[in-house]
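## tool: complex_structure
## caller: assistant
## args:
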Amino acid sequence: MKTPYYFYDLDLLERTLIELIAEADDSHIHYAIKANTDKRICRMISNYGLGVDCVSGNEILHAIRCGFPPSKIVFAGVGKTDEEILIGLKHNIACFNVESAQEVQVLNKLAKRMQREVNVAIRVNPNISAETHEYITTGTHENKFGISCEHLMEVVRLIEDSSYLKLTGLHFHIGSQILNLDNFRDLAHKVNVILAEFYDEGIDIQHINLGGGLGIDYQNPTGNPIPDFRSYFQLFRDELQLEAHQEVHFELGRSIVGQCGDLHTKVLFVKQGVSKQFAIVDAGMTDLLRPALYQANHHIIKNNALENEEQHQYDIVGPICESSDVFRKSYSIEKLKRGDELIIKSVGAYGQVMVSEYNLRSRPEVYYKKDTSMATIALGEHLLMN
Ligand code: LLP
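## result:
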């Protein structure tokens, strides 16, 4: 197979979904489709009955094509265009998560034009740190996302005065790749405070959407292929103080698809620098942007390495004309030579979706591994059988 290519383990995805659904109990899960829009992956997720969280009009259309019912689509995003809002209205999606007073006004105007009643959740910026990379922190006052608690009641009144909008929910999302569950505990406490205020004001909230953000184990993907969904959901069950009729929703992306993807790449050249050795591979930041953009460290293994091979240190770098095109620095791995195949792990989320054609690069191919006994989806030409 021609490298670089993405390789998805659909059996692992299926096991992850089964565990997720068991642990989520009666919470509603919307897959954050921005993490991976691959059709087979999306179809499998929709087949398992999950809803979907979209952040663009095209994501809504894609989600519907992949089998997600519009009644389970929530639409977030700080900058929705009129065209995108109209797509959501036309398809009668479950809820718009609004992020500014002006968006409320535009949504009401367009809903009136379409003669549609619209469910709205306010995205609240709870000003909570997520202890994650600054580029994937979303819930502090430094970030563009959501409406601060100071302005919340103003926006509530605005929605109440908008005849085509119905305030049904509150939406939160504090960031991504969060491993310290205390951050989610802080979120739950903040939600309780806000809900108490709403209760005092006599405002009924039917659903609380806690966003996504649960992290995965990038260091030890083989040891921990499925995230600790149990502790995550249990925390919210323990901490949230809800009324009996209030539904809990989540928008998980990375934790569902992150570990099911590998990126295969070949060593083109090994070069001795002055103080270090470089292994130059045929995948670059155009195929996997995360290391260049967020200094993300993906685990890399040498395919078909022999047991007890001596370890050497390399900077594993791509071929793109950018100094940030580095996958790992001073990385210990078995001795490498031209033609060796490397597997970059945990690329199922925010990997293929962030591919670019910079340097006029071709897009990587995609292959799948699926056990025939679990054939819940159509088999395509690139599907590999066990
Ligand atoms: N809900 C909202 C409103 C979001 O903005 C996001 C992710 C999610 C849910 C899903 O979060 P997750 O469960 O996947 O953490 N490209 C970055 C991650 C960007 C996340 C953007 N928002 C990365 O590669 O780390």
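## assistant note: The pocket of LLP is lined by residues 32, 35, 53, 76, 136, 138, 173, 176-177, 211-214, 251-255, 290, 294, 349-350 (CB under 6 Å). The mean pLDDT is 94. Handing back to user.
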